[in-house]
Design brief:
The complex is a heterotrimer of chains A (about 475), B (about 120) and C (about 425). By secondary structure, chain A is an alpha+beta fold. Helices cover about 30% and strands about 25% of the residues of chain A. Chain A is built from 12 helices and 23 strands. In chain A, β10 and β11 form a beta hairpin. The longest helix of chain B is centred in the first third of the chain and has 12 residues. In chain C, about 20% of the residues lie in helices and about 35% in strands. Chain C is globular, with a radius of gyration of 23 Å. Chains in contact: A-B, A-C, B-C. Chains A and C meet through β18, α9 and β23 of A and β7, β8, α3, α4 and β11 of C. β23 of chain A pairs antiparallel with β11 of chain C, so a sheet runs across the interface.
Amino acid sequence: MFDVIIIGAGVIGCATAYELSQFDLNVLLLDKENDVSLGASRANTAIVHGGYDPDPATLMGKYNVRGAKRCMELVNTLDVEFKKTGSLIIALDENDLKTLDKYYERGLLNGVEGMEMLDSEETRKREPNLSEEVIGALWIPESGVINPWEFTISMAEVAVREGVKLELNQKVIDIDKKSDHYLVKTETDQFQTKYVVNAAGVYSDQIHNMVAEPAFKINPTRGQYYLLDRSAGETVKTVIFPCPTELTKGILVSPTIHENILVGPDAETVSDPEDTSTTREVLGLVAREAQRSVPSLNFRNNIRNYSGIRANSDYNDFFVKISAPKFLDLAAIKSPGLTCAPIIAEEGIKLLAQEGLELNKKDKWDGTRKIIRFKEIPKAERADFIKENPEYGRIICRCEHITEGEIVAAIHRGLPIFSLDAIKRRAGSGLGRCQGGFCGPRVQEIIARETGVSPLDILLNKTGSYILVGQTKNAESED
Amino acid sequence: MVQEIICIVCPRGCHLKVDPENDYEVTGNSCPRGVTYGKAELKNPTRVVTSTVKIKGADLKRCPVKTDQPIPKAKMQEVMQLINAVDLEAPVRVGDVIIENILDTEAKLVVCRDIG
Amino acid sequence: MQNIKEYQLIIVGGGPAGLAAAISAAKSGLSEILIIERDKYLGGILNQCIHNGFGLHYFKEELTGPEYSKRFIDLLSENKIEVALDTMALNLENTEDWRYVHVMSSSDGYRVLRSKALILAMGCRERTRMNIQIPGTRAAGIFNAGQAQLYVNLEGYMVGKKVIILGSGDVGLIMARRMTLEGAEVVACVEVMPYPGGLNRNIVQCLQDFNIPLYLSHTITDIKGRNRVEQVTVQEVDQFGKPVAGTEIYYDVDTVLLSVGLIPENELSREAGVEIDPRTSGPMVYENKETRSKGVFACGNVLHVHDLVDFVTEEGESAGHAAACFVQDGGCVTEDANIISIKTDSNIGYTVPQQIRVDDVEKAVRVFFRVRKIFKEPSRIVFRDQSNAEIASFKRPFMFPAEMENVNLPRQLLDKISGTELTVSVEE
């Protein structure tokens, strides 16, 4: 019998698992995919938002600034890539200036610190590549760019190290309310638990409906992106938001923690929450809209298009509630959900305590994580370091200079590894301009060697995404 | 019946017409080399086959091989079956003969890379 | 930093360009030469190019890729050329007297080396699906042709059962034949341009031999399949490259191979401040393959993408010889050299070299270039100086973008040039 089962290992589920791991509890984290962080936490805008935008009356408004502060602490505790870039919301016409005024007021109510209204000259001084049409901007210093999947994975890694059980490839198909517990049924297993946390992202309404009356409906919303190579040069150094237009909520242009440029997203309601394809029409629209803010953007430097599905809903806020006895919804988490995740987890755990969950701190709990990034080792220390750790002397990913040592370490950090993308999310290999063209086969070989499986069984990403179909020469066995 | 083929002797890619019923007469060529190619390609088209074979006892699991001279095009698939059945042991050297006189074509299957 | 090991010449890259450069530099008198190769083997991309057809110009016989590179690898030891395998060059720094190279390997750790001259021979990489922005899902089963070639030829794995190929570059065509011979079904090759990207002989021997259709002026406009490719949509494109509605053909395939172009790999060069020509994506070079950075030379696909390895070898030899001259006499360069810049008309994509230091030309300069459209009829390649005087002209019965062209400009003609520019054009 588990004390708590968390359904969904995205940023919300993993943050909850991380926070719960400090208590003397038997916790199970379930996900339907073969890795954590494969829903909206994988494909999003990768921003720690400043908090000027959400309605102060909502949880989004209440949590945002607290969340941003907590994120900025956690990135140090967990050794997660983050850069405090600040954000600029730019105005291209008089209407936009009124929007900026509204944001400024909201920001004050939400507790945003350090906001500044800039005139066009000051704005373009800070970001010379902005359109000459820019007539002013709102500066939000307390915001930045984060590696969202590393954030999620790091919390899962610590949680698992500190005793949380993780089960992957477990799609929940039903939840039975028993007299003193819940029976959580998956396609292959069933688990008993006293408490359930619903952190199922775009499926959170379905999980909710397994135990409670429908209260909200998720409208899966797809957003498409471009990732431009850093050879594009330093196009912008802060996150650039336009004001919303009639067509879009505004296409942002943002630096990433890997010094690339991220452009997107649009917002399109889709019927299939797994449909992460990209389309010519939308990408064209995204490119044109982005060039309104930064005309010099060169989409020939594109190294990746992707799309993410956000858990937008008909409920105009995060749905953070006890919806049935001992059943907690952390549902309908849309933007700024990544920023608010640590607070959503904290507040959720308070609600569980009100439902009777006993929170006794463990005598020993280590909430920190430290990983080696070869790029960050000073040149003068590299020779000695490689002498001690020869695997860090072999570069596997040529574009991002990721070493074999980093890849091997990522494989052995407690979470099972089934795919090349799992390594990409952990070590950063294959994120560069060749998109794994050179290093993919090498990474495959290393995973096979380290985990003892055949290279034929290593996937590109999710279950079913096989890379190889067999051997040449009708060979069957590996030698 | 007259057949149309693209000449591959040079990049120009002339569209040759070859008439098997008229002593393989070639038209559409821009130079005499086209005539030679057109006749040969219809009378007896041949190709060099390159592939790999399994190898044991080395880092590499496959060794590149080729037929040391062109073989009749029609026999390519049959030659592949023979190639697929080969098991080499390292070390091997470029030019080592794996199969003599493949399918009575007089061509040999030879190693193309030093391994081991 | 510990003691810095010194060489006369360091070559980054042990493929055909680097190998030829090393041997030529040794023959020109250098004795301390190091080749840095990131792979475990020398030979570069030739190791996976197991098909034949290499060396027709250079050796006057047809060799496979591994056989071709072996001819050079076998000469290294007798020329006392040092090789660092499984070693990555991380940074280059250029100073007045020395070229510094930061290298790293498991066996020798992190080291700083320096040399009098440096040759860039890093080769190129493939353009990806994302560079050409094919929409659709990001399922497994989409490979660059060269990546598939590595899996199939070197590692012995099959990447798919039912395959479509986008792009008719030579690697894609070669892979159509390889996949077919290894038992896969190749349903079509699709090319967005109205003419093929690869050589005729490959169209005939890799596609026609196996009845694989080639669709010119077509492209892939959608890829479906959640986890592995399941279906692609092929559409005709109009003269502007825009898909034409109503021309959709659907193929149920599990694999897409992309052969959509190659890009010189100049990240190291850029960081070192070597000036890059946006037309070639390779360094700007003078007649002797020296870049605008003193003592730094470039050859092979890092300089511009070649279609024949034979020319890569020649370019490597020329760079190796020039680097040796540089080390021995402080360069073939006279400081106040009379520099001529080569401009192109709209029919020509680029030239290599981009500039000629006339005083340093011994007998002649070989100028390489590509035309930007098909010339089926005889035409003339004409060089004119700034007074519009015709300096040289060369007849060609036909020219194709897929085939690199070259002409030889003798020194005595270069001496006749007035002004500092030479414009090359095609006159039909």
